[in-house]
Write a structure and sequence with these properties.
This protein is α/β, with parallel strands linked by helices. It has two domains: about 1-45 and about 290-389, Aspartate Aminotransferase, domain 1, CATH 3.90.1150; about 65-290, Aspartate Aminotransferase, domain 2 (3-Layer(aba) Sandwich). It contains 14 helices and 15 strands. It has helices at about 20-30, 50-60, 70-85, 100-110, 125-135, 155-160, 185-195, 220-225, 240, 255-270, 275-290, 290-315, 340-350, 375-389, and strands spanning about 35, 95, 115-120, 135-140, 145, 150, 165-170, 200-205, 230-235, 250, 320, 330, 355, 355, 370. The strands form four sheets. The chain has a seven-stranded mixed beta sheet, with helices on both faces. Strands 11-12-15-14 form a four-stranded antiparallel beta sheet, covered by helices on one side. It has a two-stranded parallel ribbon with strand order 1-13. Helix 3 (about 70-85) runs parallel beside helix 11. The longest helix has 25 residues, at about 290-315. The chain is globular. The relative contact order is 0.17. The model has no long low-confidence stretch (mean pLDDT about 95).
Length: about 400
């Protein structure tokens, strides 16, 4: 079954895919002659059950307004309970078009203009745009790189959280791009600080399903149980099953006041419209996707190890911060380049490798770059071969 992930379908027109679109490549890398491993989506063909379900929906021939019924919500709830031991209750579940949409709506609805929103760079660059876009202030709690592993600066977090102007935090869990899967003790410490200072917890758990080796994903809503309900969790099946262009996202909160506010926001701005194919996809992947996702994760784990071994053997001056989860890898080029211009020249002009510069992810990103590895391994190795040359 793993062999399916080695296949790259050449007969597909990818010109409208963000990752391959010539306009995007030109804007981001200055050229279209480049191997794109930048956008966090997948080049793998989706699970067979999903294709079958979509064909069945297409044959129906009727596509009116649709609701998220119990038949769609229950598989999602069951998935989180079985896979992560995370309890999601039906009455706290809401749907919106994307995780970024949900985060932007929550910050705009539940905080005040000028408030500080804490993030932990180097972190997903979309957070900056969201916070600035709704007139809030970015408050950085930079991660510390210690012996090749990123850790949270709790002293700094406590200082930032105790400032009454800082009213919310976006936790990236698992962390994109550095690949940390936070341990329960780390999450408990973050929770304690945020609860003590009445900081709203917005936890982005979109990468929760891709976890490697001995690591275990712990949902922040479970950590908050019995302590506080000042929390909203955001997620989607998009990353897990390679379908961000098909499905929407969800948010969950055990807090009825927060739920009511977000429900009204979603209705007011029409942020929660369903579509037939997305609904069919959600129901299918969460009901039948366990084995397929296990195989995909094992494939990705092997890719991570292969990249690590290749770099150590062939390009030892470039190192991998080995991820505990997600299908992004964080590469350290600090021994081979002095600045972004040199890194761009190395990657984009010489190696023809389209990956995202670390400085896009904020403080701590200088000299690093993020590579998306949800592609057939032969493609990854060809790209690394170009980098070696």
């Amino acid at each position: 079954m793993a062999a399916q992930f080695d296949k790259y379908k050449k007969d597909i027109n990818r010109s409208t895919f963000v990752r391959y679109n010539e306009n995007y490549l030109k804007d981001n890398f200055g050229t279209t002659d480049i191997s794109p491993f930048w956008v966090a989506d997948s080049d793998f063909i989706v699970m067979p059950e999903l294709i079958k379900a979509l064909k069945k929906t297409a044959k129906r021939g009727l596509y009116p307004y649709e609701l998220k019924t119990l038949a769609i919500k229950q598989p999602l709830i069951d998935w989180f309970k079985k896979r992560h031991n995370v309890e999601i209750k039906m009455d706290g579940l809401l749907f919106t078009t994307s995780v970024n949409t949900g985060l932007a709506a929550a910050i705009d609805e539940l905080t005040t203009k000028g408030d500080g929103i804490i993030i932990q760079p180097p972190v997903f660059q979309g957070f900056k745009g969201i916070i600035n876009g709704v007139g809030r202030k970015i408050i950085n709690n930079p991660l510390k790189l210690t012996n090749g592993r990123y850790e949270i600066d709790f002293t700094d977090l406590e200082k930032k959280a105790s400032d009454k102007k800082n009213t919310a935090i976006i936790l990236c869990s698992p962390h994109n791009p550095v690949g940390r899967v936070w341990k329960v003790k780390e999450l408990e410490k973050i929770a304690g600080i945020c609860i003590a200072n009445n900081v709203l917890m917005l936890t982005d758990e979109i990468h929760a399903d891709v976890i490697y080796s001995s690591n275990t994903f712990v949902g922040m809503t479970e950590v908050y149980k019995g302590k506080s309900d000042n929390i909203i969790m955001f997620g989607s099946a998009g990353k897990s099953f390679g379908i961000p262009g098909l499905v929407d996202s969800f948010m969950y909160t055990p807090n009825s006041t927060l739920k009511k506010a977000m429900q009204e926001r979603i209705m007011r701005f029409h942020l929660g419209k369903s579509n037939a194919f997305g609904n069919a996809a959600l129901k299918t992947v969460y009901k039948y996707g366990h084995k397929w996702l296990d195989t995909k994760t094992a494939y990705l784990a092997k890719t991570v190890n292969t990249i690590d071994e290749y770099l150590k053997k062939n390009i030892p001056n470039i190192s991998l911060v080995k991820p505990e989860g997600t299908y992004q890898v964080w590469l350290d080029f600090n021994k081979v380049v002095k600045n972004d211009d040199e890194l761009k020249n190395l990657l984009y002009n010489k190696a023809k490798l389209g990956i995202t510069l670390g400085t896009e992810y904020g403080i701590g990103g200088k000299g690093f770059a993020r590579m998306n590895i949800a592609s057939p391994r032969p493609m990854i190795m060809e790209a690394l071969g170009n980098l070696k040359k």
